[in-house]
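# nightly structure sweep
# worker-07 picked up a monomer target from the shared queue
# config: single-sequence mode, recycle default, output format = structure tokens
# input follows
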Amino acid sequence: MLDIKVKKFNELTLQELYSLLKLRSQIFVVEQDCVYQDLDGKDAKALHILGITKNEIVAYTRIFKPGDYFDIASIGRVAVDKDHRKYGYGKEIMQASINAVKETFKEQQIKISAQTYLGKFYTELGFKAIGKEYLEDGIPHIAMLKE
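# output follows
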């Protein structure tokens, strides 16, 4: 089970910031072989959901209140270290993120831009595909909504 921490950008320690950026880069740039600008200027507006085990960030998301990314609350940059995926940490960090949206922003609707191959994973968490598939940074994505 993960130790979950929810932090504003200015509450992150330097070590936490370094670790979460390393995890994001490891997955979205190296593992997925995708050259893109991860540092998009939006981290300062986000709440950061850290999933920690043995003093290591192994799961992560960032969440936004309505208007800071999409017109409704959203979850993004969902990342779980490759060596820790077998433990169900993806669902755990997503459930913690959904709860944080509800508790912190008092919102029920949540939008995500999901990599298409993960559609079943997000459907199991209550998200439904909306619209057509599209390419984001060369990777097929689908918008999904949880109400």
